[in-house]
Design a protein that fits this description.
Number of helices: 9
Shape: elongated
Radius of gyration: 24 Å
Distance between the termini: 17 Å
Structural class: alpha+beta
Strand order of the largest sheet: 12-13-14-15-11-17-20
Number of domains: 2
Order of helices and strands: HHEHEEEHEEEEEEHEHHEEEEEHEEEEH
Number of strands: 20
Largest sheet: 7 strands, antiparallel
Helix content: 25-40%
Strand content: 15-25%
């Protein structure tokens, strides 16, 4: 995905989010822009051991310092230190070796956005590495494979990179725990605020799966306030994006109901999307979505199992397939909405099964009660009932497909595991990425 807002955008005095171009790179060189905590220029992208260590250190340092942009292909002239054009050769998939290196060298994992900008003649270009502001700081990198030399936690100080001292690391951990607690509280509030909109009194809406999300970074100051057309486009794009997480042949009815005669309505610093049949109702019995201007997202879907005609099992149950499909839809809507707002960081998502205030009866998991070769819908004998589902918090550290797929699977499994099952029916296994 293109990088639509960064420190380089700010220094070039761009007023609206958009992808960077060759002209922007040329202008940055002509202006001799100075490096700082959030901007670093590199003349080359080497693959030797020292260069690998430096890349891991630079990415970890920026993640520990609020995020930033590394530009490969801009160097410094010896002597007067002014910027010079050092366009590099671009590989077909430049993000792959970078992500693999960081997965091996940096903890907790960081997945930056990597974007090539080729020159007009295709002979070379520049490589942008956008490091997100991380909610998991402090990040450590391995600066020496020798086990006697422990990993370090770097930090940016101006254009320099220093190592955190012990008290800096202690403070960073305290800040992390505070951020996590604040995020969990904000997501729970987002869920609670929407609960009053949900109708728990219909036969198929006694149980709701509500997934709330927030970006780990913020919406850029230059990002325009989203309008109704943007909201409609996001929902349409999210439907296609969600299918990439499904097994071949599976459907995405979660968003289909919201897209039927889609008519987003304005709310308090947000857009709301209802199914057509719920447009004028006080409460909703069909899927419901909120897309907030600050990047918050909420998707609610009734998951009470629909029993086939003649089924005499009256035990209350939620449908496993719906849980999986909603998880995929929520991740897709979140990423698509954040892209529309020019948010390039990851997100934190929270899944909760919500029932009516007076409903304390245990409920079961309805799905494939047979095996891999024989499908028999019903309550599987190897699952057990629950009275409540513990909320599932999932950190989506990157914006690439693999990170989103992991988040969708983690959300679904976080709910399904609480019934004692590991089986996924709709979502593709992670090894199919």
């Amino acid at each position: 995905m293109p990088i639509t807002w960064s420190r380089l955008h700010e220094l070039l005095a761009l007023t609206a989010p958009r992808p960077l171009t060759i002209d922007d790179i040329t202008r940055a060189i002509a202006l001799n822009l100075a490096e700082d905590e959030a901007l670093d220029f590199k003349a080359q992208l080497r693959t030797d051991e020292h260069a690998k260590v430096e890349l891991a250190k630079d990415v970890a340092a920026m993640a520990n310092s609020g995020g930033g942009l590394i530009v490969y292909g801009i160097g410094e002239a010896p002597g007067d230190k002014h910027l010079i054009d050092s366009a590099i050769q671009l590989s077909a998939e430049p993000e792959q070796p970078i992500h693999q290196l960081l997965a091996a060298r940096v903890r907790p994992l960081i997945r930056p956005v990597v974007e090539p900008i080729p020159t007009a003649d295709g002979s070379g270009g520049y490589l942008l590495v956008q490091v997100p502001a991380s909610s998991d700081s402090p990040h450590f990198y391995e600066h020496n494979p020798d086990p006697k030399n422990p990993p370090g936690a770097p930090i940016r100080y101006g254009s320099n990179t220093l190592m955190m001292r012990e008290r800096d690391i202690e403070r960073a951990y305290r800040d992390r725990f505070v951020r996590q607690a604040d995020t969990a509280t904000a997501l729970a509030t987002l869920t609670d605020d929407a609960t009053g909109t949900l109708d728990f009194d219909q036969p198929l809406s006694a149980h709701w799966l509500v997934i709330a999300a927030r970006p780990t970074g913020s919406v850029p100051l230059g990002s325009p306030t989203p309008d109704v057309d943007t909201t409609r486009d996001v929902m349409l794009q999210a439907r296609g994006a969600s299918m990439r997480f499904h097994r071949p042949g599976d459907r995405a009815p979660v968003l289909d109901l919201l897209l039927e005669h889609i008519n987003p309505r304005r709310g308090l610093r947000r857009w709301t999307v209802r199914a057509y049949s719920d447009q004028d109702a006080v409460t909703v019995a069909k899927p419901y979505a909120e897309l907030h201007h600050d990047g918050g997202v909420l998707l609610a879907y009734p998951v009470t199992a629909r029993r086939p005609e003649g089924d005499t099992d009256t035990r209350p149950a939620i449908h496993a397939l719906k849980v999986e499909r909603i998880a995929a839809a929520a991740v897709a809507v979140t990423r698509t909405w954040h892209a529309a707002l020019a948010v390039t960081t990851g997100a934190v998502l929270r899944a909760a099964v919500v029932t009516g205030p007076a409903d304390v009866a245990p409920f079961y998991l309805y799905g494939n009660a047979g095996d891999d070769t024989f499908y028999s819908p019903g309550v599987a004998s190897w699952t057990h009932p629950v009275r409540a589902i513990a909320p599932v918090l999932v950190d989506q550290p990157g914006v690439d497909h693999q990170a989103q797929h992991h988040a969708a699977v983690d959300l679904a499994q976080g709910v399904l595991h609480q019934f004692g099952t590991e089986q996924l029916e709709a979502l593709a296994p992670l090894d199919e990425d």
